[in-house]
Amino acid sequence: MEIALCASFVAILLTTVLFLKAISRCSRRKYNLPPGPKPWPIIGNLNLIGALPHRSIHEPSRRYGPLIYLRSGSFPVVVGSSVEMAKPTTAFIDRPKTAAGKYTAYNYRDITWSPCDAYWRQARRVFLTELFSAKRIESYEYIRREEVHAMLRDLHAASGSGRRVAIMIKDYLSTASLNMITRVVMGKRYVQGEVIHERGSVRTLAQFKELLEELFFLNGVFNVGDQIPWLDWLDLQGYVKRMKKVSKALDQLLEHVVDEHIERRQREGNGFVERDMVDVLLRLADDSSLEVKLSRDSIKAFTQDLIASGMESSSETIEWGISELLKKPKVFAKASEELDRMVGHRCWVNENDIPKLPYIEAIVKETMHLHPIGPLLAPRLSREDTSVGGYDIPSGTRVF
């Protein structure tokens, strides 16, 4: 009797669930989704993703067109791979929640991973009007000039030693780029072999570079836990463990930097003058008129964004440019001729000369086209139902 009653209950329950599911399907809007390969159960189209995700995603676009629909584990994904499909729209201004944003960006407190809310809008205004205003960028021109000259002097000294030695240009480029950024952001210039922070795990310039490279890498990895949330706790690839480690190390350094700046403000009192971007952020943190108060974590997250996003992108692009020029002697000769003609053979090139160098500017743009630092930008999230290229993009879809 009890078995029959239990069986009847299970049958009624299953019938109810199936009935509700059928009603849900009938009432659900029918979307005209972009074309794409058929997904597998659970993993979706993750089977298509190889070691270079941007190339893996490009392959289906050659078959299905410039706008394709995929399933990335548990989530729908739309990939636009043409200029027309990549036109900006406010529907795609949000960000999905990812492990990188949680563990390396102070729980989404930076500007890269922050969701589109009042905090993000305020952060964007701070970056545009305070940190990257034309006047402030111009005021740091002397720093960029000094660091370029220092790099060229170091390269000249290394190449003029009288011995035939291989020179790793990337090391000089990354050091110059890092020092430009750290002087502008933190008021610091780091020297090879110098102890950066005695009490923290970041002690030397080499360790600092390694941490920033690790941070850059982890913010671009294809983490399985981000695609299939119920597998997140397993950390199958070990990325979350690495994120926590690099975040802890960088936080120790950033804590030290913030403390130094606060101590200088207190020590100088009324005679205090802002020297760098951390000083600007600390001043804004005390501004009671802000819609959302900037916390200490906000200051550290913005500082980390400014340093990490600038160092790798600049040095890598220049390295690729030099590599391409060395393989094309005619292009190299034409660029040299333009420099000699417009600037002079024995003159330093400065930022005011850039408008007079269209050929070199074209080389830089083509380098960025051939070797983009981030072929896949951080994913966006569709905040509402919208249409692109004649296809429907449902709310909640991740967009690349």
Automatic annotation (TrEMBL):
<dbReference type="InterPro" id="IPR002401">
    <property type="entry name" value="Cyt_P450_E_grp-I"/>
</dbReference>
<keyword id="KW-0349">Heme</keyword>
<keyword id="KW-1133">Transmembrane helix</keyword>
<keyword id="KW-0472">Membrane</keyword>
<dbReference type="Pfam" id="PF00067">
    <property type="entry name" value="p450"/>
</dbReference>
<dbReference type="InterPro" id="IPR001128">
    <property type="entry name" value="Cyt_P450"/>
</dbReference>
<keyword id="KW-0560">Oxidoreductase</keyword>
<protein>
    <submittedName>
        <fullName>Uncharacterized protein</fullName>
    </submittedName>
</protein>
<dbReference type="GO" id="GO:0020037">
    <property type="term" value="F:heme binding"/>
</dbReference>
<comment type="similarity">
    <text>Belongs to the cytochrome P450 family.</text>
</comment>
<dbReference type="GO" id="GO:0044550">
    <property type="term" value="P:secondary metabolite biosynthetic process"/>
</dbReference>
<keyword id="KW-0479">Metal-binding</keyword>
<keyword id="KW-0812">Transmembrane</keyword>
<dbReference type="GO" id="GO:0016705">
    <property type="term" value="F:oxidoreductase activity, acting on paired donors, with incorporation or reduction of molecular oxygen"/>
</dbReference>
<dbReference type="GO" id="GO:0005506">
    <property type="term" value="F:iron ion binding"/>
</dbReference>
<keyword id="KW-0408">Iron</keyword>
<dbReference type="InterPro" id="IPR036396">
    <property type="entry name" value="Cyt_P450_sf"/>
</dbReference>
<dbReference type="GO" id="GO:0004497">
    <property type="term" value="F:monooxygenase activity"/>
</dbReference>
